[in-house]
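2024-03-11 09:14:02 DEBUG pipeline.ingest accepted 1 chain
2024-03-11 09:14:02 DEBUG pipeline.ingest length=479
2024-03-11 09:14:03 DEBUG pipeline.predict start
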Amino acid sequence: MPEPYQHFNFLGLPREIRDAVYEYALCSFSHRRGPYDITQCAGLCSWTDVQICHFTGDLNLLLVNKQIHNEGYKIMLERNLFVLVQIHDSTDEHLMIRGHLPPVFALYSAYQDEREQVRPESFPWHTMRIRLNEKNTTPEEMAMNGEYNDIVMLLEDCMDILKRFELRVTDEKLPDPNERLLPMRLPIKVVVDLNPKRKECNRETSYMNIRNSHSDIEQKKLLKHIGDTFRGYDHFEIRNCDDKVLAAEVVQQVSKDPVISLAFFQAHIERHSHSSEASWNQGNIVECANFCTEGLELVHRVRFSAPLTYQLCDQGLQNCFHTSQFIHRLYYLLARCTFAHLSKLMDKRIEEDNYQYIGDTAHALFDLLKTHRKRVHGFLSHYDPPIHEKAEINYMKAKALRVEWEFYSMRPWGEMLRCIEDAKRLQPGDPIYEEEERKAKLWLGENARYNVWVRTIDWEGYQTMRYWRMEIDKSVFEF
């Protein structure tokens, strides 16, 4: 028989040891890291989903007795600054967030399809609330259109998400008198509440009387993160801040545009372009992808800085040509890294739960290749890639489309075949392109056979097109 548990006096331990136990048990986070983390780089300029990884601390420790509860709760809130982020359901955050996001460590989340779960307001963990909604939406319209989607997350994760929100959008139909693009503000209103009212609690009394209204030092710490993160927001409001002057300064700071010097931008892009090229030549695709990602993140921020864009163009055509060439190399090498890694994965046995991930990656790769010339407007309009790169880009686009449709069991369409035909036209006689064209035509032809088969089968034994094609012709089911 197993030996009975040995009891010991936990409260008899020194306070430093107890605090270490509290921190280990109540401040630990974990996330499910997928096996294809490099492929997430392809989503740098694609629509990004917030990957929520839930808090894994052992909250039962807080229920032992009142002293342990008070000590542990205090440590938990000192080490973990939680923020309640509320996004109105009429605001699609996935269309505004750009760039690869690391997993978000969230204590709790509640969406409208989780009606049976307790709302985050019942959890007294958050020390600040940030509410996002469209700037012209009134409270009455919010009540009619639905509720907020709530996520209680760590402060640092919240800031990482918010700094990747698009600061500006550009309408190509509205040129200025000098035929330049007019930048316009993102139509988002941000409300920051430093002392959010909680259920059955007022501003002066928090959960179990442990944390009262934030001190001036705590408020300055929270506002520092806000001031360092947000830029270019006209519709910004701070509530329940005791230091009104500080709040006004942060609001003014947030409304300013990001300032990046032209010399720094050009040196940064050139350095990362050369570094990524060297890593690719050495066969280190992970390092190459990281260099590309870091360089393109700055390109993305500059895209919304109209003065810097105009200054770059005013330097002359040759200057803009070299800059656009470096930017193209970053996009091109990032696509090659993603494509090479995805190709290697397909040689291995793919588990069922990874099908969705591979399909998403293939879609991000296609989106990256299809629209990268339009992302920075004038930067890339002066540089035309060589023919062999154009052919390779079309080849990668065709293959990415085929893999995406393969894993999603989607109905194929002619874009895939047009891409590979363009690759063959630009670089005729390439056996790799000819083989991809053969697979594309077979893929399109089998769609008609599959539709006939679906109409004749017993739906209890229904199979998706993916598995049907694996049985019909396994040679086609490959990257």
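2024-03-11 09:14:41 DEBUG pipeline.report The chain is about 50% helix and 10% strand.
2024-03-11 09:14:41 DEBUG pipeline.predict end
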